[in-house]
Design goal:
With about 950 residues, this protein is of the alpha/beta class. Among the domains are: about 225-385, Valyl/Leucyl/Isoleucyl-tRNA synthetase, editing domain (Isoleucyl-tRNA Synthetase, domain 2); about 590-735, Orthogonal Bundle (Isoleucyl-tRNA Synthetase, Domain 1); about 760-880, no CATH class; about 885-945, Helix Hairpins (Orthogonal Bundle). Helices cover about 40% and strands about 20% of the residues. Strands 9, 10, 11, 12, 13, 14 and 15 form a seven-stranded mixed beta sheet that branches. A five-stranded mixed beta sheet has the order 31-30-34-33-32. The longest helix is centred in the last third of the chain and has 29 residues, at about 915-945.
Length: about 950
């Protein structure tokens, strides 16, 4: 498939069973046409198409392999790719790619949700731009337009996800309104109705005036807003100009009032018992009632009661048999029952009614007030509580197994902190309003006879059969049945998603559902933990008798640097496709995960994706470095390379074990950081430097082979995170056959490792780092070999002497007959004519003096400790004597002046007699320290002046 020049070499390959290396044949590629810079744009499209052509993502039941199944949280067909999708799908792809490489039959099912409210709103807006009103169309005509819109726009987001590299089984793509999916939804509705779990009734619901449909409680988002509290005077019937003042944030609803309520214990209103109240502007006579619900501390302690437009007022109205006056049309305008402001919008009426109340002297006061207002999760407009005939699903019994199996960890949430939130929701669950006043969606399979009887059946034909049976009237025809106009809540289809994508509702014994269900993981956002996750768990136990998934990984919310949730309306969300174009898909994937632990919000910054891209470039550069080395089979493996190979082999095995543990605990970001550091810090920064041959010299075949094997393992570890660049390099490292891919390679397993060796090498790295720092700070060129002394018992340096000498450009000496005791100030100048025993404070113990160690030149000495051993560096350095003498003289004068001040304080009898003993001790320590510094400076000056 790929042209290359190859040669075969004998080299060492580690045996996974015994930890030793075997002699094996390996083909090296000598491709000289590999570009200097990595070009992701060409690579990504090429490899994604290759994966699709080879069907690497396709999955069918295979009894010889275990399945690993994920179903995608279906994005809305109205949607385009945003940062939340990027994070969610990156994590899913990492998990499914890794499962595939671990030998599982990986199946990731993609699909989209029909999103009733959002899609219908888009279609209505589109028609309006064309001069067409929804009300001018029949239902079938409107649905034709909706289907055309879906065909054109519905799969955009799935195509965008492919740019991210996601490895879904695209042959399994589902849409929640596909025929078989809709049949499943209708079948479930009928089943639950027949079990007595679904009922129809008049209830107070959350009404979306823009979408003109009911919402479930979970589709209402409460936000704190700056409002006004209006104090309005209600006349007391028969009391002349006496009033009772109420406080309200919604004066427009006064027109629907049917009572005023006070607390029975409120002394201010006891004298009014039995009185009637006159509602302002409409002059409706209503009762004054007494109920403990009223908080005497709020406002004036008197509450207007509007049963049609407040859930609490509705409950009070039921207790006191109050009439219900619904003053709003479905679109939030006022109807004729309001008597005033008919046809005007509710918020405009709020302004106008205040003017009217002022004119009539009924507005007592207006105060600023912060309160919570419910907004539609879909249209973002304030909802209206509204009495309406709706369909409901009883939740009490359905929720029991769903709560129990999360609390006992049969289904595990990551992070576990969300269990408390889940439990609170489930223990306070209410019946689910499942009907929506829309045309786009699965139409409720309820049919009405002229007699008022309701027939529920999967289709009109079955409904007719049931109607004839129930009524005894065999002459009934389809025309005698009127189907319910409403559709089902979108969540009523998506709660079946893990079952319906495998056709488990219609055909519970088919091979797919039997093989793939229950699925393994669900990756989703915390805000739909109840919307979707809890409901899927309920449906799983209800219809399959089994959980739908074992693990739920809850991602955080992607936020900007100011902590705001990213959204297009705020203009703070970058276009994901622009990011991919700029930083590569691999770079964006890495960037999204660098700061994204489960359940915690992601403070996104574009620099993260830049860091991801730069990491990709580092991988490419490391590959090119290795690729350009010339291999010589005739040269033996150097000792420094032998131990380097052994060390990295141990470290890689240990790291694989760590990565596996991170994945087991769903610490996906930690897993990335672990392999990220293994490549960047250990392989690239240390290992390659350790085994790198001298300039323009070849490398031995054994070391090269080991390096290629390490690189191969690293690519496989990185592949789930960075699929494109790893595939490209994997094909360049070794000659591959057509149809081969890293996608279906086996994930490396952790072998045995020597912790002692790994820990020892950390000390070696510390030694090298100290030396490099001293070199840098003292501007010692690398070509200058410097001497290092350490004690003869230092086994660490003896074992790794070749590596230390190679990486630090030093000549380390370990043959001293006397152990060194470190007591040094960096920078002591040493001359060969000095008695080495008198060097202070450079080295107070004996260094055996040889002509090789000390010459007649001026030397610098530095000392440091690593582990249990001292290291002393002595190196020759040209210095500016005059400049150094001046600097030391200035420092000496300063220290002498400071010493005079300390001595003066200690000679002050008043100070000595009155100061605490601790203070005197501190001053004496200062004196001793300063005297020691002065002695050292004088000695150094004396040495320099000789």
């Amino acid at each position: 498939m790929f042209g290359s020049e190859c040669s075969e070499h004998l080299s060492g390959k580690r045996n996974a069973e015994n930890g030793h290396y075997e002699q094996t044949l390996f083909k090296f590629i000598r491709r000289m046409d590999i570009p200097a810079k990595y070009d992701p744009k060409n690579v990504e499209d090429k490899w994604y198409q290759y994966w699709l052509n080879k069907k690497f993502f396709k999955s069918v039941p295979d009894e010889n392999r275990k399945p690993y199944t994920i179903v995608i949280p279906p994005p809305n067909v109205t949607g385009v790719l945003h940062m939340g999708h990027m994070l969610n799908n990156t994590i899913q792809d990492i998990i499914i790619r890794r499962a595939r490489m671990r030998g599982f039959n990986a199946c990731w099912v993609p699909g989209t949700d029909h999103a009733s409210i959002a899609t219908e709103a888009r279609v209505v807006a589109k028609l309006a731009n064309e001069g067409i009103k929804k009300s001018d169309l029949t239902r079938d005509e409107f649905l034709k337009h909706a289907l055309e819109w879906k065909t054109k726009h519905g799969d955009i987001i799935l195509e965008q996800l492919k740019k991210l590299g996601v490895s879904c089984d695209w042959d399994r793509t589902k849409f929640t309104m596909d025929d078989e999916m809709s049949e499943s939804v209708i079948k479930v509705f009928v089943d639950l109705f027949n079990k007595g779990q679904i009922y129809r009734g008049v209830r107070m619901v959350n009404w979306d005036p823009q979408a003109k449909t009911a919402l479930s409680d979970e589709e209402v988002i409460y936000q704190e807003v700056q409002s006004k509290l209006y104090f309005v005077k209600y006349k007391i019937e028969g009391e002349g100009n006496h009033f009772i003042t109420i406080a309200t944030t919604r004066p427009e609803t006064i027109l629907g009032d049917t009572a005023v309520c006070v607390n029975p214990g409120d002394e201010r209103y006891k004298h009014l018992k039995g009185k009637k109240i006159i509602v302002p502007l409409v002059n409706r006579i209503v009762p004054l009632i007494y109920d403990a619900y009223v908080d005497p501390e709020f406002g004036t302690g008197a509450l207007k009661i509007t049963p049609a437009h407040d859930i609490n007022d509705y409950e009070i109205g039921l207790r006191y048999n109050l009439p219900v006056i619904d003053i709003f049309n479905d679109d939030g305008t006022l109807n004729e029952k309001a008597e005033l402001f008919i046809g005007e919008d509710r918020f405009k009426v709020r302004e106008e009614i205040i003017v009217k109340l002022k004119e009539e002297g009924l507005l007592e006061d207006i105060k600023d007030y912060v309160n919570k207002v419910g907004y539609s999760e879909r249209t973002h407009v304030p909802i209206e509580p509204k009495l309406s005939v709706q369909w409901f699903l009883k939740m009490k019994d359905l929720s029991k197994p769903a709560l129990e199996n999360v609390m006992n960890d049969n289904i595990q949430l990551y992070p576990a902190k969300f269990k408390n939130t889940y439990r609170h929701w489930m223990e306070n669950i209410k019946d689910w309003c499942i009907s929506r006043q829309l045309w786009w969606g699965q139409r409720i399979p309820a049919y009405y006879l002229s007699t008022g009887e309701t027939i529920v059946a999967e289709n009109a034909e079955k409904a007719l059969t049931l109607a004839r049976l129930k009524s005894g009237n065999q002459s009934l025809t389809i025309k005698d049945l009127r189907q319910d106009e409403d559709v089902l809540d979108t969540w009523f289809s998506s709660w079946l998603w893990p079952i319906s994508v495998f056709d488990g509702i219609r055909d519970p014994n088919n091979k797919d559902i039997q093989y793939y269900y229950p699925t393994n993981d669900l990756i989703t956002a915390p805000e739909i933990l109840f919307f979707w996750v809890a409901r899927m768990i309920m449906s799983g136990y209800e219809f399959m008798g089994e959980k739908p998934f074992s693990h739920v990984y809850l991602t955080g919310i992607v936020r900007d640097k100011q902590g705001r949730k990213m959204s297009k309306s705020l203009g703070n969300s970058p276009d994901p496709l622009d990011l991919i174009d700029k930083y590569s898909a691999d770079g964006v994937r890495v960037g999204m995960l660098l700061c994204s632990p489960a359940g915690n919000d992601l403070p996104f910054d574009e620099s993260l994706t830049e860091q991801g891209r730069n990491f990709g470039n580092k991988i490419w550069n490391a590959f090119r470095l290795v690729k350009n080395w010339q291999v010589d089979e005739t040269i033996p493996q150097p000792s420094y390379a032998t131990i380097s190979v052994n060390w990295f082999d141990q470290l890689q095995n240990q790291t694989i074990e760590t990565i596996d543990k991170h994945f087991e605990s769903y610490r996906i970001s930690d897993a990335l950081m672990t392999v990220f550091k293994l490549f960047r810090d250990e392989f690239s920064s240390w290992y390659l430097e350790m085994i790198k041959p001298e300039f323009q010299k070849p490398i031995d075949a054994v070391t090269y082979q080991a390096t290629i094997l390490f690189f191969d393992k690293l690519l496989k570890l990185l592949h789930p995170f960075m699929p494109f660049i790893t595939e490209e390099i994997w094909h360049c490292i070794e000659e591959r056959e057509e149809g081969e891919s890293i996608v279906i390679e086996k994930m490396p397993k952790a072998g045995k490792y020597d912790v002692t060796l790994i820990n020892q090498f950390e000390l070696v790295k510390e030694v090298i780092s100290h030396i490099r720092t001293i070199r840098k700070e003292n501007e010692i060129p690398l070509k200058q070999i410097i001497k290092i002394y350490t004690d003869s018992n230092n086994q660490l340096s003896a074992k790794f002497i070749d590596i230390i000498n190679k990486l630090a450009f030093v000549n380390i000496t370990t043959s001293l007959s006397v152990s060194l005791e470190y007591n040094s100030i960096e920078g002591t100048k040493v001359k060969a004519t000095d008695n080495i025993n008198t060097i202070e404070p450079g080295c107070r113990k004996i260094i055996e003096q040889t002509s090789e160690d000390i010459s007649s030149s001026i030397f610098n000495s530095f000392a440091f400790i690593v582990g249990q051993h001292e290291y002393i560096i002595i190196f020759e350095k040209e210095i500016d004597i005059d400049k150094t003498i001046k600097e030391l003289t200035d420092e000496l004068n300063y220290q002498k002046g400071f010493l005079e001040l300390v001595i003066k304080k200690l000679n002050n009898e008043r100070f000595v007699n009155s100061a605490p003993a601790k203070v005197i001790e501190i001053e004496n320590n200062k004196k001793a320290d300063t005297e020691s510094k002065i002695h050292t400076l004088e000695k150094r000056l004396e040495n320099l002046k000789k």
